[in-house]
Write a structure and sequence with these properties.
disordered N terminus, 634 residues
Length: 634
């Protein structure tokens, strides 16, 4: 039996508990000289524990050594960490130091018989106290789950996935304190297909995620009838698409109230509109509701919301290879739903085609506020299907942009966009507006609503720090706030091709959650390392001196931007890298590093490329054209 004691104060009295032996514990047969009772913790802090254990000695028995063994794994032995003890009468006493705060340890007392075997107590389990912020930082160790998750990728290992097999996540913090994540149907080796659609998982800390499974058991009953209703209005015969060929993409979850949550989702219909030499079939956005997301199977489908709209009327025989002139104006995928500061409900949606659209919803139903009418006709006739709010290039239906995510902060609506193809080149941009329906402008004032543009700054991009394979395909994000002013960015990122000799490694999709810092001008900067709950003690200037890795994150199609080494010297100079010879300065009040005129926002974060995932210092900064990422090398 394992006895677990959670210790949060400086002193905790432990009650002696006895139980049956574990699998590899000694059963004390006749002839052995010692029996050791369960250890007791008599004092405990964040980094130490004082222990006692009573032992019983048979007549004539002798021992050569007594002490404690400790590990983060069950039933430690003397072949691990051993601590000597003092023996007072029948009691083994020791204080074990240099423990990590808030961590679970397994402890056994032992006696080494003179010229005999080692006798152990039962396994005693305790969790150290919270400790001071300084202690937590000193002993910090980041999350230990694997990124290269091939060995646990299968459906039978889903309880171990954590953030493995994540694609196009949407995240909401619910009334029960959990963050709930939902995603596109995608996984390495298609492991998800056994579990329904729009899979969910949840977390209290944004690090450890519990897999919940599918929220939708099968294709909704309304989809094929609605498809054929639209086809009939276009003068086309009914279709009977293969149900196994539908796509289930990019859900968006929104908290309407503590007891009402809505999930908007995309259903992609397979096939072509009118056979060979015509454009592809349409997509639909539908909606589900749930009063309690903890009940993952309780999502109730509420049916059709919107479909692809075309400004080309019934001229639908556009060749499927004619990307720049595709039939649809708006593509009904990738919804992002927001409740504005004024209480209005809006859906932002779209992918590639003409760009991103905004449509107002009825708050009571969650459906479009205006009657939609036919999804084809003139611009005026399809106006209820939404207003164009962002485009990469005017007059071209093949945008290379998708995955909108909209949030509100300090007077602005921020529209995050995924640019380029998703396998390697995927990168994230952001624009903002005072109004939910635009116009949206980038950091240089370029109006992407009316003129189109590259939408700077680059927020994420394929990258590579030293001692790692790096990440590609890094976009289609969820952006959310924790209720205490802390903002986060979550998306998938992929391994490059050929990692560990694996031709399919680019299909490994790991969920990334990262902190966002905001510039003085109000632009979001995603940090270069994933969130690891590192204690945020103030950074001192002397900590900045030493080796760093810097990445120029300016846009380069399908290119992993690699880090370069540089040194911050004690005389406030930069040695090496793109800023070689430049001065550096530090503002302790703002926790900002300035190099060559670029303001770099500092924060403590987990070094995911290090072997033990220790804490380090990172920065992110931006000027008019370039985003910079960096981390201190330890």
């Amino acid at each position: 039996m394992n006895t677990k004691l959670y210790l949060s104060g400086a002193f905790v009295a432990s009650v002696l508990l006895m139980g049956a032996c574990g699998d590899d514990e000694v059963n004390y047969p006749s002839g052995e000289g010692f029996v050791i009772e369960m250890p007791q913790a008599v004092e405990c802090g964040g980094t130490y524990v004082s222990l006692t254990a009573i032992f019983h000695q048979k007549d004539g028995a002798h021992y050569s050594k007594a002490g404690y063994v400790i590990s983060e794994s069950a039933n430690p032995t003397i072949y691990g960490s051993v601590y000597d003890a003092t023996v007072s009468g029948d009691t083994i006493k020791a204080t074990i130091e240099n423990l990590a705060p808030g961590r679970e340890y397994h402890i056994r007392a032992f006696v080494n018989e003179y010229k005999g075997s080692v006798i152990y107590s039962q396994d005693y389990v305790l969790t150290t106290g919270e400790g001071s912020p300084e202690d937590r930082l000193k002993y910090y160790r980041g999350p230990q789950y694997p990124d290269y998750y091939v060995d646990i990728a299968g459906w039978g290992n889903r309880s171990q996935w954590n953030l493995a097999n994540v694609h196009d996540p949407s995240i909401v913090k619910a009334a029960d304190g959990y963050y709930y994540m939902y995603q596109t149907d995608a996984s390495y080796g298609n492991a998800h297909v056994e579990g329904g659609h729009f899979h969910g998982r949840r977390s209290k800390d944004l690090i450890n995620w519990e897999y919940l499974g599918g929220t939708m058991p099968a294709l909704p009953e309304w989809v094929v009838p609605k498809l054929n209703e639209v086809r009939a209005s276009m003068g086309l015969p009914a279709a009977a698409p293969d149900e196994n060929a539908f796509g289930y993409w990019a859900p968006s979850v929104v908290k309407v109230s503590d007891d009402l949550y809505r999930m908007y989702y995309s259903i992609i219909v397979p096939g072509l509109i009118n056979g060979d030499n015509s454009w592809g079939e349409r997509a639909f956005i539908g909606m589900m509701e749930n009063s309690n997301p903890a009940d993952n199977g309780a999502w109730v489908d509420k049916g059709y919301v919107i479909t692809n709209a075309s400004d080309r009327g019934l001229d639908f025989n556009v060749a499927p290879t004619d990307w720049a002139n595709c039939y649809y104006k708006f593509n009904a995928i990738d919804p992002s739903v927001i409740i504005t500061e004024g209480g209005e409900h809006w859906m932002i949606y779209g992918s590639w085609h003409s760009g991103i659209a905004a449509v107002k919803l009825d708050a009571a139903t969650g459906k479009p506020a205006a009657a939609l009418g036919n999804p084809f006709g003139s611009d005026a006739e399809i106006a209820p299907y939404g207003k164009l709010i962002a485009t990469r290039q005017m007059g071209n239906r093949w945008q290379g942009s998708e995955g909108p995510e909209v949030v509100y902060r300090n007077g602005y609506y921020y529209l995050f966009l995924a640019y380029d193809e998703l396998g390697v080149a995927y990168n994230t941009r952001v624009v903002r507006s005072k109004n939910i329906d635009g116009p949206y402008v980038d950091i240089n004032g370029i109006d992407v609503t009316n003129n189109g543009g590259d939408a700077l700054p680059v927020v994420t991009h394929p990258y590579k720090f030293a001692n790692s394979e790096g990440w590609v395909g890094f976009s289609h994000c969820a952006v959310f706030e924790d209720g205490e002013g802390n903002w986060f960015y979550a998306s998938q990122a992929r391994f490059p091709a050929g990692v560990n000799g694996n031709d399919a490694s680019n299909s490994l999709m790991m969920g990334h959650v990262r902190s966002i810092v905001w510039t003085k001008e109000g632009w979001p900067l995603v940090l270069p390392e994933r969130y690891g709950d590192v204690p945020q003690l103030a950074i001192a200037e002397e900590e900045l001196v030493g080796a760093w890795e810097n990445i120029n994150l300016s846009y380069a199609f399908a290119t992993q931007k690699e880090s370069e080494r540089m040194e911050l010297t004690a005389d406030h100079k930069i040695a090496g890298g793109v800023w070689d010879g430049a001065d550096w300065s530090f503002n302790a009040d703002s926790q900002m590093l300035t190099v060559n005129g670029v303001e770099l926002y500092l924060k403590r974060e987990c070094d995911w490329e290090s072997y033990d995932r220790h804490a380090t210092i990172v920065y992110a900064g931006v000027n008019s054209s370039t985003t910079y990422w960096g981390k201190k090398s330890l």
